[in-house]
Structures are given as structure tokens and as C-alpha cells.
Write a structure and sequence with these properties.
428 residues; alpha+beta; SH3 type barrels; 3 domains; 7 helices
């Protein structure tokens, strides 16, 4: 009996040891699956990489820290209490609370001597979700023409839900983002400027409604502009690199004559693309090339002023855009003259008193062509038309139409005239 009792005791001890081992394994596995559960939640300052620790237990995704320098987590601890824990457990850290239309946030700062590090702690989607928070360094990325800029961003001042709720959200140029603080003594523009000036990471140029930041590390620039009223504020990011203008399929031509009552003429897609390419590709320089510009071409929100002159049996032209002007080549000038004439913008005289029956109607076109021989220029599309002048071989001609009997209508010296199609070819 005693032997059996001892065996039973040994079995119980062995079973207890197995149970204890199982419990230990469960604890180890559980602790491995919950990264930083005992050590607290860390956030990494933008640029410096310095860590701030929040001594609160939570299950974390390590990928968040690698990608964004912080964590999204769930806890029942209140925001204000977490702020106190951070300042208590991290040296030389100051906490400041902010409230806006989005919710509450705490900004944590530490002066390094060369700048101010910052971290932000706030509730995620406070209007719909409870107990979820984001703790990270202040930054978001923005795509610029010369690459990606990882930008310090005052998340504590942002009330745009997309930027606040998504750790991986990116800023877009030209998009207005809501921002603000309640009972602020400064404007949003002033608060943003102070935040960036204190960081020590950027050079700043002040503008009337914003500022330009130049990242000291990369040299990349971005412009902030602000719109503010008593209740709301927005900021918009812009590129400081001028966009290259592109040819447009929509161009309006008009006369600059003050007494003209004509509505602007909308060009066909083909004429618009041809003219806009000429205007955009012109060799511009600062200065003025003409005292008057009788015509205006409008495309992509930009006005180009045009001047045309008939001289030495051909067209010359200049164009002005802003404070930049350019002389056009002979081919370009002839093409512009042809487009103006074919679209009825140029006031052109014509002699149709004895229009030949076989000529038919004129189909408008706008192109520069060159003569293949010395060619007579006539008043009508017929060999019976009066000879007005003779164009020498390889002369550039502004062709603005074609008749049914195979004559080209041209414009010269503000007059319509005609040349046989067999003596003209497309300019190269």
C-alpha cells in the first residue's frame, strides 16, 4: 500500500511539472506574439530617430514601427493619463495638449540644442472608435517632381481625418487639408511657421499667405499656402518647380482691338494643337519686341499676345507671354498668319467680283508651305486672275484654304490671294 501511495505521489508531481511547463510555454509564446507588451510602446522622432516610450501594455504590429516610426494600438488608458506617463518616464520631454474639430492630441517635444524633436499621441477616429490610439513621430510623405519628400508635419494641428487616421497616408499637391486649434492665440500660419522654425530641419522663406520650406538634408522644396477664417483653416501644398506648359487642344483667338465686339474664336483641335505648340516652343527672352499686339491666344489659362508683320514678301511675327517675348521663325510666322486668316480673326481683304465657276468653295486650312518654283500670286483661283506678285522659289507661304479646282488660298499683306497647288509643298 505504501509503495502504491508513493507511486501515486510521484505521478502527481510529474503531472504538476508537465502542467507548469505547459503554462510557461504558453506565457512565452504569448509574450512573443505581443511585441513590447511589457516594455511599453515606443515612437521614433522624425529625422533624429530618438525614441519615446509609453509604458502601457498593448499588442503591437512590428511592421508599423519599421514603416512609420510608431504604432497604432488599443488600450483602456485615458489620453491624459498616457501623456503623464510619457513625461514621467522620459527625460526632458514636455507635453502640450491641443484640441480641434478632429479631437484631442498631445504634442511631446524635446530640445536637442540644434532643434526640437517631436512626437504625437492622439485617439484614432474619436467620433466612431473608442480605445484606439496612434503614437508616432510627426511626419508624412509627399511626392514632388524631383522625388519623394518625407516631411515633418504637425499632426497635432491637423484636423483632416485622412491624414490623422492613416499612419501611411501621403500628402498630395494641390489638395486642401483641414487644420486648426481651439482658442488659439496664433493663426494657423503662425503656428506652422513656429513649428518648422523650431525643428531646425528646414530653411524657410515667408510669403504673404504661407511659406516655402527647403529641406536642409535633401534640398527639396515645397510651398505651404493657408486659407483661414474664424471657424476653419486649410493648408495646401504646392510645388516650387514651374510646370512645363503643354500643347492644348483648346485655344481661343481674339482681337485686342478695344472697339472690337467679336467673341473669341474657338479653334479646331488640329489648329489649336499646331498653334499652341508654336507658342510654347518659342525662344523666349525677357523684354519687349513689339509696341502693339493685335491678337491674343488663350490656352491652359495663359494668354499669348501676337504681332504679325508683312515684310520683304513674307510674314514675321513676335509673341509675348508675361514679361517674356520671342521672335518666331518665318515658318512659324506663316503658320500663325494662316491660322488667324482661316479662322476669320485676321481682317483680310479679298477680290471675289469675278469668282470663277470652276473654283467652287474654299475649304479652310492653316499651314505653312513653300514654293517649288517661282510662282505667280493671283487675285483669283484661276490663270485669269490678276498677277499681284511673284513668289520666288523656296519662299514660305501662309496657306489658309484650298479651292475645289486645286488652288491654294493664301494670305499676304492682309489680303487673300491664290497660288496653283502644283507649285507648293509642305514646309519641312
Amino acid at each position: 500500500m505504501k509503495r502504491r501511495r508513493r507511486q501515486r505521489q510521484r505521478m502527481l508531481v510529474l503531472l504538476g511539472a508537465v502542467v507548469l511547463l505547459a503554462v510557461v510555454l504558453i506565457v512565452i509564446i504569448s509574450s512573443c506574439s505581443k511585441k513590447n507588451q511589457g516594455a511599453g510602446i515606443t515612437a521614433q522622432a522624425f529625422s533624429t530617430g530618438s525614441e519615446l516610450t509609453l509604458p502601457v501594455n498593448a499588442e503591437l504590429n512590428s511592421g508599423d514601427y519599421v514603416s512609420y516610426g510608431g504604432y497604432q494600438f488599443e488600450t483602456g488608458t485615458k489620453l491624459s493619463k498616457m501623456a503623464k506617463l510619457i513625461t514621467k518616464n522620459n527625460e526632458n520631454v514636455t507635453a502640450t495638449s491641443y484640441d480641434n474639430a478632429y479631437g484631442s492630441a498631445y504634442l511631446f517635444t524635446r530640445d536637442t540644442g540644434s532643434g526640437v524633436e517631436s512626437w504625437c499621441l492622439y485617439q484614432k477616429d474619436p467620433a466612431h472608435i473608442s480605445k484606439w490610439y496612434i503614437f508616432m513621430g510627426n511626419h508624412r510623405e509627399v511626392e514632388l517632381a524631383d522625388g519623394t519628400l518625407d516631411l515633418l508635419l504637425p499632426l497635432h494641428l491637423i484636423s483632416d481625418s485622412y491624414l490623422r487616421d492613416n499612419m501611411g497616408s501621403k500628402l498630395s499637391l494641390g489638395t486642401a487639408y483641414a487644420c486648426g486649434t481651439k482658442s488659439a492665440d496664433q493663426t494657423m500660419l503662425e503656428q506652422f511657421k513656429e513649428f518648422y522654425a523650431n525643428s531646425g530641419l528646414y530653411n524657410m522663406i515667408t510669403l504673404e499667405t504661407g511659406f516655402i520650406l527647403t529641406d536642409k538634408a535633401t534640398g527639396r522644396e515645397v510651398e505651404f499656402s493657408f486659407e483661414e477664417n474664424d471657424e476653419s483653416s486649410w493648408f495646401t501644398l504646392k510645388s516650387t518647380i514651374p510646370e512645363e506648359p503643354e500643347p492644348s487642344s483648346r485655344v481661343q483667338l481674339s482681337s485686342t482691338d478695344a472697339v472690337s465686339t467679336d467673341e473669341p474664336t474657338e479653334l479646331s483641335e488640329a489648329d489649336a494643337l499646331t498653334l499652341s505648340k508654336i507658342l510654347i516652343d518659342a525662344n523666349y527672352k525677357t523684354g519687349t519686341t513689339a509696341s502693339e499686339y493685335p491678337y491674343k491666344a488663350s490656352l491652359n489659362g495663359t494668354d499669348y499676345m501676337l504681332e504679325l508683320t508683312w515684310k520683304d514678301d513674307t510674314w514675321s511675327a513676335s509673341v509675348q507671354s508675361g514679361d517674356q517675348t520671342a521672335r518666331l521663325t518665318t515658318k512659324q510666322a506663316c503658320t500663325v498668319a494662316a491660322i488667324l486668316a482661316s479662322n476669320g480673326v485676321m481682317k483680310v481683304e479679298s477680290d471675289e467680283s469675278s469668282w470663277p465657276d470652276e473654283a467652287g468653295t474654299v475649304s479652310p486650312m492653316g499651314a505653312c508651305m513653300v514654293t517649288t518654283n517661282d510662282v505667280n500670286v493671283r487675285s483669283l483661283p484661276s490663270t485669269n486672275g490678276n498677277i499681284l506678285m511673284t513668289m520666288l522659289e523656296s519662299s514660305a507661304v501662309a496657306v489658309c484654304g484650298q479651292t475645289e479646282n486645286d488652288w491654294y488660298q493664301i494670305v499676304y499683306n492682309d489680303k487673300f490671294a491664290y497660288m496653283s497647288a502644283q507649285y507648293l509643298k509642305a514646309a519641312e
